[in-house]
Write a structure and sequence with these properties.
Elements (H helix, E strand, L loop, with lengths): L4 E3 L6 E3 L9 H9 L4 E2 L6 E2 L2 H11 L1 H9 L10
Antiparallel strand pairs: 1-2, 3-4
This protein binds zinc ion (2 copies).
Length: 81
């Protein structure tokens, strides 16, 4: 994969080389804007364009189920790496 991010020497901020904007969540930005990755929710039918959006959704909407999954321990399949 070609370099999608560069670091601004002066500000030390990450800049997307495709859209030339400062990105605060580089991975999330690349995945959602440029890789068209989809992040399906494992608790409902919703699909999100970014890891961060999915995480926020799961945290807000499925907190209880989330606890349940965690309670199952390591035997539960790891959804996120
Ligand atoms: Zn970009
Ligand atoms: Zn959901």
């Amino acid at each position: 994969m070609k370099k999608l991010l560069r670091t601004d020497k002066a500000t030390k901020k990450k800049i997307c080389t495709i859209c030339n904007v400062v990105v605060t969540q580089p991975l999330n930005h690349i995945e959602s804007k440029h890789l068209n990755m989809k992040f399906p929710c494992s608790y409902c039918d919703k699909v999100f364009k970014g890891r961060l959006l999915l995480n926020t959704h799961v945290f807000r909407q499925h907190r209880d189920q989330n606890k349940l999954t965690k309670a199952l321990g390591d035997s539960a399949p790891a959804k996120y790496d």
